[in-house]
Design a protein that fits this description.
Elements lengths: L22 H20 L4 H15 L4 E7 L5 E9 L12 E2 L3 H9 L3 E3 L17 E9 L2 E10 L7 H38 L10 H18 L3 E8 L2 H8 L1 H16 L8 E4 L4 E7 L3 H18 L14 E8 L8 H16 L5 E5 L2
Bound molecules: guanosine-5'-triphosphate.
Catalytic activity: 2 GTP = 3',3'-c-di-GMP + 2 diphosphate
Protein name: diguanylate cyclase
GO molecular function, one term: diguanylate cyclase activity
């Protein structure tokens, strides 16, 4: 549809006082403004850009010197952000200046919770001049379902501009803006909640380290990356010894405590940016060590085994020591184009079972060719 001739509405006769315009002309200009603002409010994903287009619209199409949308903080005690259009020729308060709602006509709008019509700015004790041409001002609370988001501020060089019908349209515009801000905040809150949920879905609830899902994704990603750089990849499978007996004799809560301590000890062995420890299963952990060959991986495994033993986590039912010990399987390979990471996982798992068979509390290595 082509743009109606009404474009550039106000500027067709900028000097003409608002009330001297024909009543039908005024109404159609206001209706057109409202339609435009509604369209702007419905478009775009960026709140700042939408608010800017709305204030631009007000200044371009009406006898308005300054139009602004001033947003409040959560507690509604301060203005924290302003989007404005028009001509600010004098120094006025900006949200960046620590602007409490105790100041200015916009502050009064927040304090009283109702629209403020200032027919003569010279007589208003709260008016803060931003442009010496301004004669009248209208301020409307931007409120969505009882929650106050800010104030819509319109300043005109004409003293008779804010007729009842004009104010009604600005009230409707403030309601539109409130809906837009509400929607943008809901979207932002949802995005934050989604990010938190995603992080939680990748984390083990008991120990706080990565869970199996995160491990699987990291292994796949690393494999693909390391193929290109011809860099080795090592993996340690760490399994607590005689854990069933520990639970049975010392109780599950003590068992849980030991699992948390083991997770911290595994974390203590991580060095590289992409090193990762995850809880692989019940009392099993896996360390992903990119850039380490089998010899280096065995060294990390041995350091971990000794650190666990030094911790002296009480184990009243282990036949090999009065404290918790771990059996560790180490695997390493050079990721190759056609290869699969599962082979590495299997090798470390087999090595771990070999460590169990060898009497536990030891490290066994297996290279994957
Ligand atoms: N406290 C606690 N125990 C768990 C948890 N997850 C798994 N387990 C227990 O870990 C035990 C693992 O037992 P098994 O697989 O038989 O192995 P094990 O007793 O450690 O014997 P080896 O591995 O052969 O040394 C089971 O009794 C599980 O119930 C957990 O989150 N908390």
């Amino acid at each position: 549809m082509s743009q109606p001739a009404i474009d550039n509405l106000y500027n067709d006769a900028p000097g003409l006082p608002w009330v001297e315009r024909d009543a039908r002309d005024r109404r159609s200009r206001l209706t057109e403004l409202l339609a435009r603002v509604s369209r702007e409010a419905a478009e775009g994903e960026d709140l700042e850009a939408v608010l800017r287009r709305i204030v631009d619209c007000l200044v371009e199409r009406m006898p308005v010197a300054i139009a602004s949308i001033v947003l409040l903080n959560e507690a509604c005690t301060h203005f924290v952000h302003e989007v404005w259009a028009g001509e600010l020729t004098l120094n006025v308060l900006q949200p960046a200046d620590d602007w409490p709602v105790s100041k200015g006509a916009a502050g009064r709008c927040v304090r009283t919770g109702v629209a403020q019509l200032i027919a003569n700015v010279d007589l208003d004790p709260d008016y803060l001049a931003g442009n010496s041409e301004v004669r009248s001002e209208y301020l409307v609370p931007i409120r969505h379902r009882g929650r106050l988001h800010g104030v819509l501020n319109i300043e005109s060089p004409q003293s008779d501009f804010f007729t009842a019908e004009a104010c009604e349209v600005f009230d409707a515009i403030a309601a539109q803006v409130a809906g837009t801000i509400h929607l943008a905040r809901v979207v932002r809150e949802l995005e934050t909640a989604n990010r938190k949920l995603h992080a939680l879905s990748m984390q083990d609830g008991l120990t706080g380290i990565a869970n199996r899902r995160q491990f699987d994704a990291a292994l796949q990603q690393l494999w693909t990356r390391l193929v290109k750089g011809s860099v080795p990849l090592a993996l340690l499978m760490v399994d607590a010894d005689w854990f069933k007996a520990l639970n049975d004799t010392a109780g599950h809560l003590h068992g849980d405590e030991c699992l948390r301590a083991l997770a911290r000890l595994c974390e203590g062995q991580l060095r590289g940016e992409d090193d990762l420890v995850s809880r692989f299963g019940g009392e099993e952990f896996v360390l992903l060590l990119p850039g380490r060959d089998l010899e280096a991986a065995v060294a990390v495994g041995e350091a971990l085994r000794q650190a666990v033993a030094r911790q002296r986590l009480e184990h009243p039912a282990s036949p090999i020591a009065p404290y918790v010990t771990v059996s560790i399987g180490a695997g390493a390979t050079w990721p190759s184009e056609g290869g699969q990471p599962e082979g590495l996982l299997l090798a470390a798992d087999r090595a771990m079972y070999a460590a169990k068979a060898r009497g536990r509390n030891c490290v066994v290595a297996k290279f994957v060719g």
